[in-house]
Sequence to fold (124 residues):
Amino acid sequence: QCNLTGDWKNDLGSNMTISAVDQNGSFNGLYNTSVAVMPIKIQPSPLLGFQHLTNPIGQPTFGFTVNWTFSDSVTVFTGQCFVDENGEEVLKTLWLLRAHADKIEDDWKATRVGTNVFHRLEEK
Ligand code: BTN
Fold:
């Protein structure tokens, strides 16, 4: 069984804490990124998401949004919570970051995309 609640670290060194998942599958948390367009300004930022609850093998899909408090950007993550061959929980995600564009002509350069893999920081 893979459970989203708890502390996670990704391949970039970013940390996040996800709260208890409620009966609707919704959760919130705090994301502390290790990298940013303006790294000097980094601050922990809130996240809000949903996971699917009706998954027969307990490896749910999920999505969450991070509203960066120190920039005008927003990132959405979507992924799946897996149990790997060592019995460790791992989150395989794809993310999209939308940066602020000052004018419509700059829209084309305002989106970044990538993947992140998260591992649990400590057992609950
Ligand atoms: C910004 O620079 O405007 C906000 C911070 C963005 C951090 C990105 S989100 C996707 C990737 N994964 C991380 O853990 N951090 C970067």
Summary: The two ends are 14 Å apart (CA to CA). The longest strand covers residues 74-83. The chain has one domain: 6-120.
